[in-house]
UniProtKB/TrEMBL annotation, chain A:
CDD domains given in the database record: SDR_c
Pfam families registered for this protein in UniProt: adh_short_C2
Keywords: Oxidoreductase
Family: Belongs to the short-chain dehydrogenases/reductases (SDR) family.
InterPro entries xref list: NAD(P)-bd_dom_sf (IPR036291), Sc_DH/Rdtase_CS (IPR020904), SDR_fam (IPR002347)
Annotated GO MF terms: oxidoreductase activity, acting on the CH-OH group of donors, NAD or NADP as acceptor; quinone binding
One example of a Gene Ontology biological process annotation: bile acid metabolic process
Source organism per UniProt: Lentilactobacillus rapi
Any coiled-coil regions, as ranges: none
Domain of life: Bacteria
Protein name: Short-chain dehydrogenase
Keyword Ligase: no
TrEMBL record, chain B:
Family: Belongs to the short-chain dehydrogenases/reductases (SDR) family.
Protein name (database record): 2-deoxy-D-gluconate 3-dehydrogenase
Pfam family, one: adh_short_C2
Family annotation (PANTHER family): 3-OXOACYL-(ACYL-CARRIER-PROTEIN) REDUCTASE, 3-OXOACYL-[ACYL-CARRIER-PROTEIN] REDUCTASE FABG
Signal peptide coordinates: none
Length: 250, 245
């Protein structure tokens, strides 16, 4: 049986790297699309199942070339995890249009481009699994995150629309909505004592997730055990979403 | 051998039995409840890891005693799966209050009583995982199943309330929302018609509901709490007609 092939965008760091590692532990060949060449080289050195290319996920010809490369070299794509993301935060009334565009472009358009080209290949194969790493912010707004929350909400709907369009070709499309995760991008929160306290007060688990705690549910959604799951979102937030009310216990 | 212990209510129903079998395959001891004495006895006889017991899920004393005895016998309750089965079709304006009450009692109050008593024990243990099998009907209403949809919605919010209350005790509570499942509640011609509207064009096998339910109790789901996982073959996303030409 030939080796299974997975694409992971942002696969060389943070949640993306954790997903890459989970997959390689299952002997799956990972091909990462990442903007960070140093991180790609480091991950390649660490595991021979890791292949990767520098890709700007917002650039259509980059994405098309990357997907072509994977299909030419490995013959197929079994899984694709869309993880790459970042944002320029700011209050809506102060936010420059350029910052808004940066976030929408990276978070939303990057996912669209991968689903478009990988989906085309999976349609041809008549099978495949797509998992998008969205965010709890797709359901819950937050200060300074107008662009990010809007883009993630759109990713959730894009997930469902892609599931609808690709169901006839046995392609499952789902999204994970992580809460606070311990990564380089959230260090600004967890390193700030006051902010860290405010977040933990809200999170029943009283801690951020490890990247592995996001990676494992994402890989589950791509597994045989999830064969009947498509077009849905799975919140992985340590119970954060359910704490809209203050704690009124006396 | 695993020394884990699970409670599965309605354990000889389609989904209940699929969950029980997958747990036993992982060497988890299953204490299965239900009202079908013969089926429970049969399963206990054939499976060493299965301990079937008739329990009236809406009798508080019965549920309390059951959980106490299970704890005395096996030492702890690691997992509890609540599967409420009843389904009756009817329109709101025609439904008898007694029928409505029957459904609320069996499908909602039963889940409350199990979580109350199991939750108490898990709080004492400082750990545990609870999964409720609700229904996609909690999100999408349909003709003739208004009580079912209302109850399943209530189970969803109850799941979240229980998660909130028990999080400090390191207990996770989540729910699965299945779409149409083979012979659950019952495959008839009408429900097969409904399968035509599914994205994947077939009902789920009970095992395809059991797998995700057990995943939610696994180590891999350690950060998942107070949420619902829809397992419906893309049914929920088909609100619009297919406009492809």
């Amino acid at each position: 049986m030939s080796k299974e092939i997975a694409i992971v965008t942002g696969g060389a760091s943070g949640i993306g790297l954790a997903i890459s590692k989970e997959l390689m532990n299952k002997d799956i060949q990972v091909v990462a699309a990442d903007i960070n060449e140093d991180a790609l080289n480091e991950a390649k050195k660490a595991n021979e199942l890791f292949d990767g290319k520098r890709v700007d996920v917002t650039n259509e010809s980059d994405v098309k070339e990357f997907v072509d490369y994977v299909v030419q070299k490995y013959g197929k794509i079994d899984y694709s995890f869309q993880v790459a993301g970042a944002s320029k935060s700011g209050l809506i009334i102060d936010q420059p249009l350029a910052d808004w565009n940066f976030t929408i472009n990276l978070v939303l358009n990057g996912v669209f481009l991968f689903i478009k080209y990988v989906g085309k290949q999976m349609k041809k194969q008549n099978g495949g699994k797509l998992v998008n790493i969205s965010s709890l912010n797709g359901d819950v707004p937050s200060y300074y995150a107008g662009a990010y929350s809007s883009a993630k909400a759109a990713v959730n709907m894009l997930t469902k629309n892609a599931a609808l369009e690709l169901a006839d070709y046995h392609v499952n499309v789902n999204a994970i909505l992580p809460g606070l995760v311990d990564t380089r991008l959230t260090k600004a929160i967890t390193d700030n004592e006051e902010l860290d306290r405010r977040f933990k007060e809200r999170i029943p688990a009283k801690r951020p997730a490890t990247p592995e705690e996001i990676a494992k549910p994402a890989v589950f959604l791509a597994s045989e055990g999830a064969s009947y799951i498509t077009g849905t979102t799975l919140v992985v937030d340590g119970g954060w979403e359910i704490t809209g009310y203050p704690d009124v216990r006396m | 051998m695993s020394d884990k212990v699970a409670i599965v209510t309605n354990a000889t129903s389609d989904i209940g039995w699929a969950i029980s079998k997958q747990l036993m395959a992982k060497k988890v001891r299953v204490i299965g409840t239900g009202d079908d004495e013969a089926a429970l006895g049969d399963a206990s006889q054939h499976y060493e890891l299965f301990d079937g017991q008739v329990v009236d899920p809406i009798a508080e004393d019965a549920v309390e005693n059951f959980v106490k005895q299970a704890t005395d016998k096996y030492g702890e309750i690691d997992y509890s799966f609540q599967i409420a089965v009843p389904y009756q079709a009817g329109l709101i304006i025609d439904e008898q209050l007694t029928d409505w009450n029957f459904m609320i009692d069996l499908a909602l109050n039963g889940v409350f009583l199990f979580i109350k008593n199991v939750g108490r024990q898990m709080k004492k243990q400082g750990s545990g995982q609870i999964v409720n099998i609700a229904s996609m009907d909690a999100h999408v209403q349909s003709y003739c199943s208004e009580d079912y949809a209302a109850i399943k919605s209530a189970i969803n919010i109850f799941t979240k309330s229980a998660a909130l209350e028990l999080a400090a005790a390191n207990v996770q509570v989540n729910s699965i929302l299945p779409g149409i499942v083979d012979s659950y509640p019952a495959i008839d011609e009408h429900s097969l018609d409904q399968a035509e509207t599914l994205s994947v064009k077939r009902p789920a096998r009970p095992e395809e509901i059991a797998g995700p339910a057990i995943f939610l109790t696994s180590e891999a789901a350690s950060y998942i709490n107070g949420t619902t996982l829809v397992v419906d073959g893309g049914w929920e996303i088909t609100g619009y007609p297919d406009v492809r030409m």
